[in-house]
Amino acid sequence: MSKLVSFVIPCYRSAETIGKVVAEIDEAMKKLSAYTYEIVLVNDSSPDDTFEVIRGLCAQRGDICGINLARNFGQHAALMAGFRQTRGDVVVCLDDDGQTPADEVGRLLAQIEQGSDVVYAKYTHKQHSGFRNFGSKINELMTRVMLGKPKELYLSSYFAAKRFVIDEIMRYTNPYPYVIGLVLRTTKKIVNVEVVHREREVGASGYTLGKLLGLWFNGFTAFSIKPLRIATALGCFTAICGFIYGIYTIIKKFVNPVVPIGFSAMMAALVFIGGMIMLMLGLIGEYIGRIYISLNNSPQYVIRECINEAVKTIPAAGVQNTGENGKEQKESRERHG
Question: Model pTM?
Answer without folding.
Answer: 0.73
